Amino acid sequence: MNRVHIKTYGCQMNERDSEAIAAMLRARGYTIVNAEAEADIILLNTCSVRDQAEQKAIGKAGRLLKDKHRATPALSAPRLRVLGLMGCMAQNRGRPLLESLPDLDLLVGTQKFHHVPDHLDNLLASWRGLGPRPSTLVELDTEADSQNLLRGHSPGRQVSALVSIMQGCDMRCAYCIVPKARGAERARPMEDIVDEIRGLAATGTREVTLLGQIVNHYGKREYPAVAGKTPFVQLLERIHAIEGIERIRFTSPHPSGFRQDLVNCYRDLHKLCEHIHLPVQSGSDQILRAMRRSYTRDQYLRTVNALRAAHPGMCFSTDIIVGHPGETDADFAKTVALFDEVKFDMAFIFKYSTRSGTESADMGDTVPRDVKESRNQILLERLAATSLARNQTLVGTTQEVLVESPARKGRDIFMGRNRGNRKVLFPGNAAHVGLLLPVRVESATTTALQGRALA
């Protein structure tokens, strides 16, 4: 009764949290399984950024609870014994979730993940008759040091690792529920982060991605600027000096926090990959003001141009919301124009959905659903065109590829990423995993490059 399946919704921060929980459970004697049908315990790590993500998790939990209690003469009792809901939706919705899912066993918020092993021990003890059957265990309080308690647990050898450097957000974007779900900004100690990454390098990690809700705000309260360099830049420089780490990435920064010292890192730190995820959300100053985004269209474009000046090969991805309350056809046209000007390599395009408790929710959902869908499709079509065009320029070039794993499809086909974060597929073998290989690109699709390793 100790097989655990963890299903993760949402961002890379959630992925990293799930990895750490899995490592903690393994250390406690639990077995992590990939198939939910094999699990005694299923944990859903949830996202609250969009309504669709919440509804998916609630629907999944409802179906699992129904299966958990189903028993017929032709079907033996199901394996599932414990179902837990964790993460942002648990933190945001809290106890009211139990009204729609009263048979949940466990409800754990974003700052109590490190208590999950203890709670599961107690729940399983009750199933073995070693203690009273507890009611739903609820852990939703804030805990300032929770992140460090969780981060000491590594999921094992990884070619590319996610490293959380901070938690929470102090921005007040009108549409966003993250400050409520993740709490106020708080940074991990720089020394702890550097020690963690040294440990990862010692086990074979070649690339790290630094995670934070507003990652370039790292340490702005905890550490002073030194020689005109922000704490985040100081951290990048220290990681850059770690032997064995060959690539550094980070996500997601805020455009208004992109100072010149950070721009210069793309010129001066060769391990910092020339790819940046820089959320813009809208190309209209009017909508940016309504969203409470603290930059203008022109300021955003100046940052893009500064980054391209620092490294001409810069690749850009972004987030865009279509249909925010008040968005007119003219506002959307400005977003399209910005999209065409920057020529994003990748974009995550979302149709606005109301988040209860946010400022945008008070504005009303003023853009009709079919208009949102139309605008979404327009940007998706442009993204497909720009992405394919960019990939085709790489045909005939040799790309440095960090080999991550076998590809999902194809016999003896392996997958890695170039420095611009493009997926690259090529014939290979297991000995290539973890290596930086030169790959000659022979063809391209919208989402991937195909080629042949030169060594």
Key structural traits:
single chain; 455 residues; alpha/beta; Rossmann fold; Transcription Regulator spoIIAA; five-stranded mixed beta barrel
3D structure, described in words:
This protein has four domains: 3-139, 3-Layer(aba) Sandwich (Rossmann fold), CATH 3.40.50; 157-273, Transcription Regulator spoIIAA, CATH 3.30.750.210; 306-392, Transcription Regulator spoIIAA, CATH 3.30.750; 398-453, OB fold (Dihydrolipoamide Acetyltransferase, E2P) (Beta Barrel). Helices cover 35% and strands 21% of the residues. The chain has 14 helices and 19 strands. The longest helix has 24 residues, at 369-392. It is globular and about 65 Å long. It starts with a strand and ends with a strand. Residues 71-77 have low confidence and may be disordered.
